[in-house]
Amino acid sequence: MKIRRLLAVAAATTAAALGVPAAHAAATGAITGIGGKCLDVTGGASANGTRVQLWSCNAGAAQQWTVGDGSIRALGKCLDVAGASVQNGAKAQIYDCNGTAAQQWTASAGRLVNTGSGKCLDATGVSSADGTPMQIWSCGTGANQQWTLPTGGTTPPPGSPCPAGPFGNPLPAQNLTATKIKDGYNFLEGPVWDAGSQTLLLTDMHDGSGPQNVQASDILRFTPSTNTFATFVTDSGSNGLALSRDGKSIIAATHDQRSVSAYDLATKQRNTLAANYQGRLFNSPNDVTVGADGTVYFTDPDFQRADRPDQMSGHTDVFRVKDGVVSLIDDSIREPNGIELSPDGRTLYVGGNATGKVYKYPVNADGSTGPRSDFVSLGGTDGGTVDCAGNVYQVTFGDGKVHVFSPSGQALGTISAGQNMTNAAFGGPDGRTLYLTSGSPSSGGDTGNYGLYGIRLNVPGWPY
């Protein structure tokens, strides 16, 4: 979490492969193989465990496959290896989508490689007869392992930082430990990657001061190519940071003025995006994310409100601001914290720091949100991020870990970086370095010792 004052006083290689689109650019159509036959769900049945076969192409629903986010789907189910087997001859079937490696596929040299087994989708017996069952088998060069995929939508939207998919498991191992880059800072927060300068921007927060005990902060700039840090904006008043969609500004949750601000990257000029809600001052805006249309979503717990009066009647809230108009999303989450958008912009994730849950909201075309639902149960949530496959990286403060979940909520593993982790962001030239902020909070007089950590992952990340 972005700590309260009392805590301050007292944490598979990306495959831009052959014609398979990313999560935000899915394509639907027939998948053709040996003999020009189509990949088909036997009998058009949607029951779990229904075998996948070859059949003469007929444009039926059982032959309409959607490829993207690493999965291959038909009839509302995912192409799956039965029992998550890694053995030659294991059955290929459809099953409820669950985000596991048994349902993740990478296109490579015309083949479809299952992430969990490393084996290829294979037409049994090198046959092209109708009804030939599908299996997995050690990858070779035979025609029975060659597949032509739907071609529509294979190019990500203009300006997207994500390559085409599909994507495999994002983690090289289930439990990872990040490497420290540099420490010695009081309390680091809000990292965000600036692709234009190939640098990471992050907040360093100081201990509270003045009559209301408000925490000052600066924006730092880390340059990986020279491994150097410098102060970018002094007295920024910031906490969480995000990048504007045009790449020209940093959007900052600025608790110093209880507002949301934009800092021009060229001039460092500060402009206010959201000053209040219906005339009432926010508590202390904390984390931000930005939609493709420029809508800014932010959380407003009370961690940095300090000794300033409450104008939100005890509520801690989630807001959005579009075209200068602030709208309430939710006022029923106690201490909402990290906030992230899925790569396709259709799902908003919010960590409930004091509720033990991470929530999700559907996002409508106009940037408004639908009803909230539970995503996963997780206590002590802080900041977070997502990758280009839509996997969610949720930081928990107390144990100093990032908990990684598939878009369906399946736990994929963890990444550690000491104690008291606050936030995470993807960056680097290929977007595959995950940066983490973690350390020891101050016991007074700016005696904190926070550091920046980094780790290389298999899937590039989403900077918004």
CATH architecture of the largest domain: 6 Propeller
What is the number of beta strands? 37
CATH topology of the largest domain: Neuraminidase
Low-confidence stretches: 1-25
CATH homologous superfamily descriptor of the largest domain: TolB, C-terminal domain
Our count of domains comes out at 2
CATH class annotation of the largest domain: Mainly Beta
* Helix run count: 1
Helix content: under 10%
What is the general shape? Answer: elongated
Proportion of residues in β-strands: 35-45%
Mean pLDDT, as a whole number? 89
Give the strand line-up of the largest sheet.
12-33-32-31-30-37
Class of secondary structure makeup: mainly beta
Instruction: Please summarize the sheet with the most strands.
Output: 6 strands, mixed
Radius of gyration: 23 Å
Distance between the termini: 19 Å
Can you describe this structure?
With 464 residues, the chain is mostly beta strands. The protein folds into 2 domains: 5-11 and 169-462, Neuraminidase (6 Propeller); 27-145, Trefoil (Acidic Fibroblast Growth Factor, subunit A), CATH 2.80.10. The chain contains 1 helix and 37 strands. It has one helix spanning 5-9; strands at 27-29, 38-41, 52-55, 65-68, 71-74, 77-81, 92-95, 105-108, 111-114, 120-123, 134-137, 175-177, 179-185, 188-194, 199-209, 214-223, 228-233, 238-243, 249-254, 259-264, 270-274, 288-290, 296-300, 317-322, 325-330, 336-341, 347-352, 357-362, 373-377, 381-387, 392-396, 401-405, 411-416, 423-427, 433-440, 449-456, 461-462. A 6-stranded mixed beta sheet has the order 12-33-32-31-30-37, with no helix packed on it. β18 (238-243) and β19 form a beta hairpin. The protein is elongated and about 80 Å long. It comes from Kutzneria buriramensis. Substrate binds at residue 286. Belongs to the SMP-30/CGR1 family.
